[in-house]
Amino acid sequence: MRLAVGYLKVREMMKILIPCGRTLTGSSNDSIYAAVLNGFLLVLSEEGDIIYLSENVEEFMGISQVDMMGHSVYDFSHPCDHDDIKKVLTPKTSEKMNLKADKLERETISFFVRMKSTVKSKGRAMNLKSAAYQVIHYIGHRFDKPRGMEDADKCPTFYLVFIGKTIPHPAQIDVPLDKDIFVSRHSPDMKFTHIDERISEFLGFTSSELIGQSVYAFHHALDAKTVFSAFET
């Protein structure tokens, strides 16, 4: 029943996403689209329901397309990230589409969410009840209901269409650092627990002078809001 209802919602969605007068036709290139995207396709309703997912979502999250479609995105996201999702689902007055040079320009939406993942190291899968969380970077656009469309009352006000890409854990990244980069580690209260000796080349401090100090004591006062939001959970 859930999938049947989901199919009906997909049909309504296509009335908004596909311009009038156009039809969908098969293509011999359809099979390579997912590989080219280097991610998976996600379509959300205005309530946060998962209207559509590309089949390759299982490669990134370990959960099949069938198991996720029709459910709410809140069922698979970390509780601490629900407020961020609600902000994305709430239209802002500044997010209005502008008509320039006869082209419809939409503001790009980009955000990060921790999603349930059953993918373990070496590609092995675990049970959904034991799932961990994987950071997903979603980037996409909002598609509003066209004015004057038929059966407008039956269609949602808008849909959100995203490409989701996994963000690897820092511990899994083994990339040589550029000479202009230094690495630091911090405790939960953002005190330095480790920092590269190269810090002296950039800021003039030695690592021993910074260990035990809070990073908040070194940034400019006008940057406080930006710094706090970066570490907000």
Automatic annotation (TrEMBL):
It is found in: Nucleus. GO terms for cellular component: nucleus. The keyword Transcription regulation applies. Gene3D superfamilies: PAS domain (3.30.450.20). SMART domains: PAS. Keywords: Nucleus, Repeat, Transcription, Transcription regulation. One of its GO terms (molecular function) is RNA polymerase II transcription regulatory region sequence-specific DNA binding. GO terms for biological process: cellular response to hypoxia; positive regulation of macromolecule biosynthetic process. It comes from the Eukaryota. CDD domains: PAS. Residues 29-96, 181-233 form the PAS domain. The keyword 4Fe-4S does not apply. Its main location: nucleus. PANTHER family: HYPOXIA-INDUCIBLE FACTOR 1 ALPHA, PROTEIN SIMILAR. This is PAS domain-containing protein. It comes from Stegodyphus mimosarum (African social velvet spider).
